[in-house]
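Handout, section B. The chain below has 92 residues.
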Amino acid sequence: MLLAVSITLTIVVLVLGKSRVESERARTATALKANDEVKAQLKAAQKKLEEQQEACNTQAESSAELSRQIVTLELEKRRLQEELAQAKGGKK
């Protein structure tokens, strides 16, 4: 009788252990899948960020070039205004 009870308990413990292992295996698979999805989202976000940074750098370079052109044009304008003032002064 004691042997039958021991065998029955052993079988119950093994069945419960197996079901727990299966349950944990399923949870692990779900967690790994979610982890892969998050990694993919992070990579996409990082790529988008890099593209945005490159666009900002390009825009900053373009802005700097335009600023240089503005300064050059302002200097040329002043020079031409001075020439015009001298030409007007010389005619009087």
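Note. The mean pLDDT is 93. Compare this with the example in section A.
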